[in-house]
Design a protein that fits this description.
Length: 101
């Protein structure tokens, strides 16, 4: 997801100057993770905001039990003080969808 977002913003920046960018992940936890990674590594220090929508109400009993657990490994760039190729494992997130990053 972070790569797709990066490509989309770069394409838009070739058309015109992007002065304010508002990112709003609306779907899955992996999408929110991708948006967060994109912001941290590409947009921090710019006029970019991440906006999280909140519902006024929700149905508490939407599922029964646990269907699957997804584990995501995120390759962090060496600029964070880690050796090149070091992987950070983002904790298990429950869900039934996956989004390529």
């Amino acid at each position: 997801m972070a790569g797709v977002l990066q490509d989309t913003v770069r394409e838009e920046e070739t058309r015109h100057e992007v002065t304010n960018l508002y990112l709003c992940p609306l779907a899955t936890k992996p999408q929110a993770l991708g948006f967060a990674l994109y912001y941290v590594f590409e947009r921090r220090g710019t006029a970019t905001s991440v906006i999280f929508p909140f519902a006024e109400s929700y149905s508490r009993e939407t599922t029964t039990g646990l269907s699957r657990v997804w584990k995501y490994t995120v390759e962090l760039p060496p600029q964070l003080g880690e050796p090149a190729g070091m992987a950070a494992t983002i904790g298990s997130l429950s869900g039934t969808n996956t989004v390529p990053m």
